[in-house]
Protein backbone atom coordinates (compact mmCIF):
# COMPACT_ATOMS: atom_id res chain seq x y z
CA UNK A 1 0.00 0.00 0.00
CA UNK A 2 1.36 3.44 -0.88
CA UNK A 3 0.46 6.85 0.54
CA UNK A 4 0.79 8.20 4.07
CA UNK A 5 0.68 5.82 7.04
CA UNK A 6 -2.78 4.71 8.08
CA UNK A 7 -2.66 6.65 11.37
CA UNK A 8 -2.28 9.90 9.39
CA UNK A 9 -5.26 9.11 7.26
CA UNK A 10 -7.30 8.27 10.35
CA UNK A 11 -6.28 11.57 11.90
CA UNK A 12 -7.19 13.40 8.73
CA UNK A 13 -10.62 11.76 8.66
CA UNK A 14 -11.21 12.59 12.34
CA UNK A 15 -10.08 16.19 11.88
CA UNK A 16 -12.33 16.59 8.83
CA UNK A 17 -15.27 15.15 10.72
CA UNK A 18 -14.73 17.60 13.59
CA UNK A 19 -14.41 20.48 11.17
CA UNK A 20 -17.62 19.48 9.38
CA UNK A 21 -19.50 18.97 12.64
CA UNK A 22 -18.50 22.48 13.67
CA UNK A 23 -19.36 24.15 10.41
CA UNK A 24 -22.11 22.18 8.73
CA UNK A 25 -24.84 23.50 10.98
CA UNK A 26 -23.95 27.11 10.20
CA UNK A 27 -23.53 26.33 6.51
CA UNK A 28 -26.91 24.61 6.30
CA UNK A 29 -28.60 27.53 7.99
CA UNK A 30 -26.88 30.18 5.92
CA UNK A 31 -28.29 28.58 2.77
CA UNK A 32 -31.76 29.18 4.11
CA UNK A 33 -31.57 32.90 4.56
CA UNK A 34 -29.70 35.86 3.26
CA UNK A 35 -26.92 36.21 5.79
CA UNK A 36 -26.10 39.82 5.00
CA UNK A 37 -26.35 41.93 8.11
CA UNK A 38 -28.82 44.80 8.49
CA UNK A 39 -28.14 47.90 6.41
CA UNK A 40 -28.36 50.71 8.96
CA UNK A 41 -29.34 53.25 6.34
CA UNK A 42 -32.55 51.24 5.74
CA UNK A 43 -33.83 50.83 9.31
CA UNK A 44 -35.19 53.34 11.77
CA UNK A 45 -32.72 54.97 14.15
CA UNK A 46 -34.33 57.24 16.75
CA UNK A 47 -32.62 59.14 19.53
CA UNK A 48 -34.26 60.67 22.59
CA UNK A 49 -32.66 62.52 25.51
CA UNK A 50 -32.54 61.13 29.01
CA UNK A 51 -32.53 63.19 32.16
CA UNK A 52 -28.95 63.35 33.43
CA UNK A 53 -28.82 64.58 37.03
CA UNK A 54 -25.47 65.33 38.73
CA UNK A 55 -23.66 62.08 39.62
CA UNK A 56 -23.37 63.16 43.23
CA UNK A 57 -27.13 63.51 43.52
CA UNK A 58 -27.64 60.05 41.99
CA UNK A 59 -25.18 58.63 44.53
CA UNK A 60 -27.24 60.16 47.34
CA UNK A 61 -30.52 58.88 45.90
CA UNK A 62 -29.10 55.35 45.65
CA UNK A 63 -27.43 55.48 49.07
CA UNK A 64 -30.85 56.03 50.53
CA UNK A 65 -32.97 53.98 48.13
CA UNK A 66 -30.92 50.77 48.17
CA UNK A 67 -31.20 50.37 51.93
CA UNK A 68 -34.58 48.69 51.49
CA UNK A 69 -32.90 45.91 49.54
CA UNK A 70 -29.40 45.54 51.00
CA UNK A 71 -28.11 45.62 54.54
CA UNK A 72 -24.79 47.20 53.53
CA UNK A 73 -24.87 50.03 50.96
CA UNK A 74 -22.01 52.31 49.88
CA UNK A 75 -22.57 54.47 46.80
CA UNK A 76 -19.92 57.03 45.86
CA UNK A 77 -18.68 59.00 42.87
CA UNK A 78 -15.19 57.83 41.93
CA UNK A 79 -12.63 57.93 39.19
CA UNK A 80 -13.26 54.75 37.26
CA UNK A 81 -10.67 52.10 38.11
CA UNK A 82 -8.82 50.70 35.07
CA UNK A 83 -11.49 48.34 33.73
CA UNK A 84 -9.06 46.65 31.34
CA UNK A 85 -7.70 44.90 34.45
CA UNK A 86 -9.11 41.90 36.28
CA UNK A 87 -11.78 41.12 37.14
CA UNK A 88 -13.57 43.44 34.70
CA UNK A 89 -11.32 42.87 31.71
CA UNK A 90 -13.08 45.30 29.40
CA UNK A 91 -11.61 46.43 26.10
CA UNK A 92 -11.29 50.05 27.31
CA UNK A 93 -10.09 51.54 30.62
CA UNK A 94 -13.26 53.52 31.39
CA UNK A 95 -16.96 54.03 30.61
CA UNK A 96 -16.95 57.78 29.99
CA UNK A 97 -17.13 60.15 27.03
CA UNK A 98 -20.42 60.96 25.31
CA UNK A 99 -22.19 58.05 27.04
CA UNK A 100 -25.49 56.88 25.57
CA UNK A 101 -27.64 53.80 25.68
CA UNK A 102 -28.23 51.79 22.53
CA UNK A 103 -31.13 49.40 22.12
CA UNK A 104 -31.06 47.22 19.06
CA UNK A 105 -34.04 45.24 17.74
CA UNK A 106 -36.05 43.66 20.55
CA UNK A 107 -37.83 40.60 21.93
CA UNK A 108 -40.42 40.74 19.07
CA UNK A 109 -37.60 39.52 16.77
CA UNK A 110 -37.22 36.42 18.98
CA UNK A 111 -40.84 35.61 19.83
CA UNK A 112 -43.33 34.38 18.84
CA UNK A 113 -41.10 33.37 15.94
CA UNK A 114 -37.45 34.13 15.24
CA UNK A 115 -36.51 36.67 12.59
CA UNK A 116 -33.34 35.17 11.16
CA UNK A 117 -32.83 38.22 8.97
CA UNK A 118 -32.13 40.34 12.08
CA UNK A 119 -28.35 40.06 12.10
CA UNK A 120 -26.46 43.22 13.06
CA UNK A 121 -22.81 44.09 12.59
CA UNK A 122 -21.76 46.13 15.63
CA UNK A 123 -18.56 47.49 14.06
CA UNK A 124 -20.71 48.73 11.16
CA UNK A 125 -23.13 50.30 13.65
CA UNK A 126 -20.29 52.30 15.25
CA UNK A 127 -19.18 53.46 11.78
CA UNK A 128 -22.76 54.39 10.91
CA UNK A 129 -23.11 56.41 14.12
CA UNK A 130 -19.73 58.05 13.50
CA UNK A 131 -18.34 56.85 16.82
CA UNK A 132 -14.56 56.30 17.06
CA UNK A 133 -13.07 55.87 19.62
CA UNK A 134 -15.94 53.89 21.07
CA UNK A 135 -16.85 51.18 23.52
CA UNK A 136 -19.98 49.07 23.18
CA UNK A 137 -20.63 46.99 26.29
CA UNK A 138 -23.75 45.19 27.36
CA UNK A 139 -26.22 42.36 26.96
CA UNK A 140 -27.92 40.82 23.96
CA UNK A 141 -28.32 37.77 21.81
CA UNK A 142 -25.07 36.53 20.27
CA UNK A 143 -24.47 35.95 16.55
CA UNK A 144 -26.26 32.64 15.88
CA UNK A 145 -24.85 32.49 12.31
CA UNK A 146 -21.37 32.13 13.84
CA UNK A 147 -22.21 29.23 16.18
CA UNK A 148 -25.00 27.77 14.08
CA UNK A 149 -27.28 28.00 17.14
CA UNK A 150 -28.91 30.72 19.19
CA UNK A 151 -26.77 32.03 22.06
CA UNK A 152 -26.31 34.71 24.72
CA UNK A 153 -23.87 37.55 24.04
CA UNK A 154 -21.79 39.46 26.57
CA UNK A 155 -20.86 42.37 24.34
CA UNK A 156 -17.42 43.91 24.91
CA UNK A 157 -16.24 45.56 21.71
CA UNK A 158 -14.26 48.70 21.10
CA UNK A 159 -12.89 50.61 18.16
CA UNK A 160 -9.98 53.01 17.99
CA UNK A 161 -8.80 54.69 14.80
CA UNK A 162 -10.81 52.19 12.83
CA UNK A 163 -9.27 49.14 14.53
CA UNK A 164 -11.76 46.89 16.30
CA UNK A 165 -11.00 45.00 19.51
CA UNK A 166 -13.49 42.20 19.92
CA UNK A 167 -13.71 40.76 23.44
CA UNK A 168 -17.34 39.59 23.23
CA UNK A 169 -18.21 36.22 24.77
CA UNK A 170 -21.07 33.97 23.76
CA UNK A 171 -22.74 31.29 25.85
CA UNK A 172 -24.78 28.47 24.37
CA UNK A 173 -26.52 25.37 25.64
CA UNK A 174 -24.34 22.27 25.42
CA UNK A 175 -24.65 19.93 23.79
CA UNK A 176 -26.88 21.83 21.35
CA UNK A 177 -30.39 20.40 21.41
CA UNK A 178 -29.99 18.77 24.86
CA UNK A 179 -33.22 18.54 26.84
CA UNK A 180 -33.89 21.09 29.54
CA UNK A 181 -32.56 19.80 32.86
CA UNK A 182 -30.01 17.59 31.10
CA UNK A 183 -28.01 20.31 29.42
CA UNK A 184 -24.97 22.27 30.39
CA UNK A 185 -23.55 25.40 28.77
CA UNK A 186 -20.37 26.49 27.10
CA UNK A 187 -18.88 29.95 27.00
CA UNK A 188 -16.42 31.06 24.32
CA UNK A 189 -14.89 34.20 22.94
CA UNK A 190 -15.72 35.41 19.46
CA UNK A 191 -12.80 35.63 17.03
CA UNK A 192 -11.53 39.15 16.19
CA UNK A 193 -13.24 39.27 12.79
CA UNK A 194 -16.69 38.25 14.06
CA UNK A 195 -18.40 41.53 14.93
CA UNK A 196 -21.98 40.45 14.28
CA UNK A 197 -24.79 40.02 16.77
CA UNK A 198 -28.48 39.23 16.32
CA UNK A 199 -32.10 39.95 17.25
CA UNK A 200 -31.82 42.23 20.28
CA UNK A 201 -29.34 44.01 22.51
CA UNK A 202 -28.90 46.69 25.16
CA UNK A 203 -25.53 48.39 25.29
CA UNK A 204 -23.70 51.29 26.83
CA UNK A 205 -22.03 53.32 24.07
CA UNK A 206 -19.23 55.67 25.10
CA UNK A 207 -15.68 56.65 24.23
CA UNK A 208 -14.44 54.20 26.86
CA UNK A 209 -12.36 56.87 28.55
CA UNK A 210 -11.46 57.08 32.23
CA UNK A 211 -13.74 59.48 34.10
CA UNK A 212 -16.05 59.97 37.06
CA UNK A 213 -18.51 57.11 37.55
CA UNK A 214 -20.94 55.84 40.13
CA UNK A 215 -19.52 53.14 42.34
CA UNK A 216 -22.19 51.00 43.98
CA UNK A 217 -21.20 48.44 46.59
CA UNK A 218 -23.90 46.42 48.36
CA UNK A 219 -23.94 43.31 50.52
CA UNK A 220 -26.48 40.99 52.10
CA UNK A 221 -29.80 41.23 50.30
CA UNK A 222 -32.80 41.76 52.58
CA UNK A 223 -35.42 42.81 49.98
CA UNK A 224 -37.10 40.97 47.08
CA UNK A 225 -35.60 42.92 44.16
CA UNK A 226 -32.46 41.92 42.29
CA UNK A 227 -29.46 44.28 42.28
CA UNK A 228 -30.39 46.04 39.03
CA UNK A 229 -34.12 46.21 39.74
CA UNK A 230 -33.33 47.77 43.13
CA UNK A 231 -31.23 50.48 41.45
CA UNK A 232 -33.87 51.12 38.79
CA UNK A 233 -36.70 51.31 41.35
CA UNK A 234 -34.75 53.66 43.62
CA UNK A 235 -34.09 56.03 40.68
CA UNK A 236 -37.67 55.78 39.44
CA UNK A 237 -39.02 56.59 42.87
CA UNK A 238 -36.91 59.76 43.11
CA UNK A 239 -36.93 61.01 39.52
CA UNK A 240 -40.46 59.96 38.54
CA UNK A 241 -41.25 60.76 34.93
CA UNK A 242 -37.80 62.20 34.22
CA UNK A 243 -36.25 59.06 32.70
CA UNK A 244 -32.72 58.29 33.85
CA UNK A 245 -30.51 55.69 32.16
CA UNK A 246 -27.18 54.18 32.99
CA UNK A 247 -24.89 51.43 31.83
CA UNK A 248 -21.71 49.74 32.88
CA UNK A 249 -20.35 46.73 34.69
CA UNK A 250 -20.97 45.03 37.98
CA UNK A 251 -19.12 42.24 39.66
CA UNK A 252 -20.88 39.57 41.64
CA UNK A 253 -18.03 39.28 44.13
CA UNK A 254 -19.59 36.70 46.45
CA UNK A 255 -22.56 34.36 46.28
CA UNK A 256 -24.46 32.59 43.51
CA UNK A 257 -26.86 33.81 40.86
CA UNK A 258 -29.57 32.39 38.63
CA UNK A 259 -28.84 32.91 34.94
CA UNK A 260 -30.60 31.69 31.87
CA UNK A 261 -29.06 30.54 28.63
CA UNK A 262 -31.22 30.49 25.51
CA UNK A 263 -31.29 27.16 23.70
CA UNK A 264 -31.62 27.08 19.93
CA UNK A 265 -34.69 28.73 18.44
CA UNK A 266 -37.97 27.09 19.32
CA UNK A 267 -39.64 25.10 16.57
CA UNK A 268 -43.04 26.07 17.95
CA UNK A 269 -44.02 29.71 18.46
CA UNK A 270 -43.41 31.22 21.92
CA UNK A 271 -46.65 33.08 22.60
CA UNK A 272 -46.47 33.91 26.32
CA UNK A 273 -44.02 34.42 29.17
CA UNK A 274 -44.86 30.87 30.27
CA UNK A 275 -43.82 29.55 26.84
CA UNK A 276 -40.55 31.49 27.06
CA UNK A 277 -39.97 30.24 30.60
CA UNK A 278 -40.49 26.61 29.51
CA UNK A 279 -38.07 27.13 26.61
CA UNK A 280 -35.20 28.83 28.50
CA UNK A 281 -32.56 26.82 30.34
CA UNK A 282 -31.78 28.04 33.87
CA UNK A 283 -28.53 27.49 35.77
CA UNK A 284 -27.09 28.55 39.09
CA UNK A 285 -23.70 30.20 38.62
CA UNK A 286 -20.98 31.17 41.05
CA UNK A 287 -19.01 34.33 41.84
CA UNK A 288 -16.89 35.97 40.65
CA UNK A 289 -18.98 36.94 37.61
CA UNK A 290 -18.71 40.24 35.70
CA UNK A 291 -21.98 41.54 34.26
CA UNK A 292 -22.41 44.14 31.51
CA UNK A 293 -25.58 45.97 30.56
CA UNK A 294 -27.95 48.88 30.94
CA UNK A 295 -31.03 50.10 32.77
CA UNK A 296 -33.47 52.91 32.14
CA UNK A 297 -36.33 54.19 34.31
CA UNK A 298 -38.77 55.15 31.52
CA UNK A 299 -39.85 54.05 28.07
CA UNK A 300 -39.80 57.38 26.17
CA UNK A 301 -42.27 55.85 23.72
CA UNK A 302 -39.39 53.80 22.24
CA UNK A 303 -40.49 50.33 23.39
CA UNK A 304 -37.41 49.92 25.59
CA UNK A 305 -36.25 46.99 27.64
CA UNK A 306 -35.90 48.62 31.05
CA UNK A 307 -32.99 46.50 32.25
CA UNK A 308 -30.72 43.88 30.75
CA UNK A 309 -27.42 42.48 32.06
CA UNK A 310 -25.41 39.49 30.93
CA UNK A 311 -22.53 37.98 32.87
CA UNK A 312 -19.26 36.32 32.04
CA UNK A 313 -16.72 34.60 34.30
CA UNK A 314 -13.16 33.41 33.84
CA UNK A 315 -14.26 29.99 35.16
CA UNK A 316 -16.64 29.41 32.27
CA UNK A 317 -19.95 30.62 33.70
CA UNK A 318 -22.08 33.10 31.81
CA UNK A 319 -25.58 34.03 30.73
CA UNK A 320 -28.52 36.35 31.39
CA UNK A 321 -28.69 37.64 34.98
CA UNK A 322 -31.97 37.16 36.87
CA UNK A 323 -31.17 37.37 40.62
CA UNK A 324 -28.93 36.00 43.30
CA UNK A 325 -29.86 32.78 45.05
CA UNK A 326 -27.74 33.35 48.18
CA UNK A 327 -29.03 36.67 49.56
CA UNK A 328 -27.07 36.52 52.79
CA UNK A 329 -23.73 35.83 51.11
CA UNK A 330 -24.07 38.20 48.21
CA UNK A 331 -21.76 41.11 47.47
CA UNK A 332 -22.03 43.31 44.38
CA UNK A 333 -19.60 45.98 43.17
CA UNK A 334 -20.72 48.07 40.20
CA UNK A 335 -19.38 50.94 38.09
CA UNK A 336 -21.90 52.87 36.03
CA UNK A 337 -21.96 55.85 33.72
CA UNK A 338 -25.07 58.00 33.24
CA UNK A 339 -26.34 58.18 29.68
CA UNK A 340 -27.42 61.44 28.00
CA UNK A 341 -29.76 59.74 25.54
CA UNK A 342 -31.08 56.47 24.14
CA UNK A 343 -30.42 55.50 20.54
CA UNK A 344 -33.13 53.10 19.37
CA UNK A 345 -32.05 51.05 16.37
CA UNK A 346 -34.50 49.05 14.22
CA UNK A 347 -37.38 49.18 16.68
CA UNK A 348 -39.86 46.39 15.89
CA UNK A 349 -42.98 47.92 14.36
CA UNK A 350 -45.21 45.28 15.94
CA UNK A 351 -44.48 44.78 19.58
CA UNK A 352 -45.58 42.83 22.66
CA UNK A 353 -44.52 42.47 26.29
CA UNK A 354 -43.31 38.87 26.14
CA UNK A 355 -39.78 37.87 27.17
CA UNK A 356 -38.75 41.12 28.81
CA UNK A 357 -37.65 39.76 32.18
C1 LIG B 1 -17.31 53.53 50.75
O1 LIG B 1 -16.61 53.57 49.50
C2 LIG B 1 -15.54 54.49 49.47
C3 LIG B 1 -15.02 54.50 48.03
O2 LIG B 1 -14.71 53.22 47.58
C4 LIG B 1 -14.49 54.11 50.50
O3 LIG B 1 -13.45 55.07 50.50
C5 LIG B 1 -15.14 54.04 51.88
O4 LIG B 1 -14.19 53.56 52.82
C6 LIG B 1 -16.34 53.10 51.85
N1 LIG B 1 -17.05 53.11 53.12
C7 LIG B 1 -17.33 52.01 53.80
C8 LIG B 1 -18.12 52.18 55.05
O5 LIG B 1 -17.00 50.89 53.40
C1 LIG C 1 -13.28 41.94 26.91
O1 LIG C 1 -12.30 41.96 25.89
C2 LIG C 1 -10.97 41.81 26.37
C3 LIG C 1 -10.01 42.12 25.24
O2 LIG C 1 -10.34 41.52 24.04
C4 LIG C 1 -10.85 40.41 26.93
O3 LIG C 1 -9.52 40.17 27.36
C5 LIG C 1 -11.80 40.28 28.11
O4 LIG C 1 -11.78 38.98 28.64
C6 LIG C 1 -13.22 40.63 27.70
N1 LIG C 1 -14.03 40.79 28.90
C7 LIG C 1 -15.28 40.35 29.02
C8 LIG C 1 -15.97 40.72 30.29
O5 LIG C 1 -15.82 39.71 28.17
UniProtKB/TrEMBL annotation:
Q: Where is the DUF1907 domain?
A: 61-345
Q: Does the keyword Metal-binding apply?
A: yes
Provide the primary localization.
nucleus
Annotated Gene Ontology cellular components are: nucleus
Q: In the UniProt record, does the keyword Transcription occur?
A: no
Its domain of life reads Eukaryota
User: Localized where?
Assistant: Nucleus
Query: Where does the signal sequence lie?
Result: 1-28
Family annotation (InterPro entries): C11orf54_DUF1907
Keywords (alphabetical) are: Hydrolase, Metal-binding, Nucleus, Signal, Zinc
- GO MF terms on file? hydrolase activity, acting on ester bonds; zinc ion binding
Which Pfam families is this protein grouped with?
A: DUF1907
Q: How does it assemble?
A: Monomer.
- Name of the featured protein: DUF1907 domain-containing protein
Organism of origin is Pieris brassicae (White butterfly)
